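S.,

Sequence below, as promised.
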Amino acid sequence: MDVSMEFRNTKRAVVTFLLLWWCAFDAGLVADTYVVTHTGDSGAASLHEAVVRANSRSGADTVAFNILMDDPGFNGDVWKIELSCACEMIDDSTCIDGYSQTQFSGDTNLEGPEIEISFFGTLFAVNSSHGTIRGLILNGFETTAVRIRGGGFNRVCENYIGTDFRGLTSACQGLGIHISKGAHDNRVFSNLISGTVPAGVYMEGDNVERNSIQGNTIGTDKDGSKVIGGGNKGHGIFVLSNLLTFQGPEENTIVGNTIAGFQWGVYLAGAGTDNNVVEGNYIGITAGGILLGNRDAGVHLCDGPKHNRVIDNIVAGVSGGSAFNSGVNINGSQTWDNLIEANTVISNYYGISLSGWAGGVHEDTCLNEHCVNCLSRNIIRNNESHGVYVASMNSSNRIWENTIADNEGDGIHIAGTNNGIIVTRNSIFNNGGFGIWSSIPAPQFQTYQDYAVHGTARPYAIIELFSDSFNQGARFLGETEADASGSFHFDISHSQTSGVVTATATHGEAGTSGFSSPLTIPLSITSSMLAEGWKGIAYGDTLSAIGGKPPYVWALVTGSLPSGLLLNSEGIISGTPGEADTAEFAVELSDDAGATDIRTLTLAVHPCPKGDVNGDGEVDIADVLRVINIILRVGGSPTAHEICAADGNGDGRIDILDVVGIVNMILGAGRYTQ
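The prediction came back faster than expected:
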């Protein structure tokens, strides 16, 4: 017998045994292993024959690959198996393991997996549960790569689906993964799914629940550097209800994927497509910041999905010229109670759009108290038109606590009549058009006097005040309510307000106005009483001002601070007082426009009242208890007075020796020195 042939046969036997052990260990079960030893479509030890044998035996099974390099299907990188019909997985707990070939032959394809499987129809039809398809290249299909119908707890992971074996070009015309017919609790993760039409992943129909689409790269090459395939066609991930029963995919998660190069990145459609989560994805952009885009929308909700959460995604690169060309688009009369939160929406045509009839329906179980679509805590910047666009037929949606800035159009554009669109507590600034365009009348400022602004609006309107360098609303200051006559006032003395104040008015359920005409606030120092200091204890206080044009510059102009203290140009007084003293001095504030203001201030530094920790004028057991609490870090951080009074021996620490010292003071056995 040829020695090399004997060695190869022995190696194959050993590897087959190891594969059997490994797959059994991985599945946590004692499993049979059926080994594919050639790339032919049929016959003994073919892929089809191995799958048929796995189906014929109940329980856990593994289909492994152990093909020699002299097989005619090996091209030097991968072994290609061309099927004539689908591989049907009808028995539970079957693992199709492409990694087994790598373990046998080594890493022959440095760009991806070693086993390539092609067929113009459906490659794998999964009608079972607890199965696994991993470590394969699936391409050539015009129907579907992997179809899961009705099964649960299957895994499709770490495959190249729809690409060539290098993961660089498209090699299919069909659908990547299709989940339907009540399929539940399946996981699709860490795959490259690209070049596919009409969708990378398609979930549809009744009772399609709790499936996870996680960590996949969908629509790009393996490196995420470019879109592959036709581009701007179909859907990255398409989630659709049954249009006859109005039941749909629920409680599915789409998390941590990169999705680019489609007509729609993520598409949630139809009544019954409810309670799904789209979270932490890169949509139209890669994790490395490469802008690849999608054509019509990054995330699109239409025709009735409810209670869905679109959270913490980065959505970018949608160009075009209509309301549908948005980072996030919400459309449809029954599309309500969806939460769009904490996303970064940048470099699209519109940032977020409510393009038609969305919102305005109420129900008992909601994601938010109003049961309408909420846009909250998103960053919406650098979009080609409006940051947020609301079509005229929309009603009752909420836009709150977002940062909306640097968009070329309006920050928020509410077209036509405002039908209860509530805009509250946002930071809106530096947009090319209006901060907010709305049909609701804006409030009007009347006067500014004694650090308070006064104005008028509709009776009982909620007035929100903002500070801005120009005429929008960069920083929310607070809110007040107009009285029965429509008058309102708001104290801004503690607001660190810049030179311009603006306001919006929300009139009950009618909606929110645009920003008022700006009110210019003159530069003024608002600090009047400074914090007291204590000899030998670190001191810090910050001067405050309103109005003018920041940045501010502070300076000491007359008098002097207590010894050991300094004033810097940012208005911070700090240091450690060396002596007890009361100092009077004048500070000058200058702004960027050359305006100035001067104010005389007084700062008192006291000697330490040794032992009287609580400052009630007596040294007693209450002071002992407070020192003990300070040592144990109970009752909050100590004040400067408490630190000074408690550290009786002056060693810079508050410890048991200070407790003993105060007890001695109470008993008359000794006293602290000042």
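Residues 3-27 form the longest helix (25 residues).

Coffee later?
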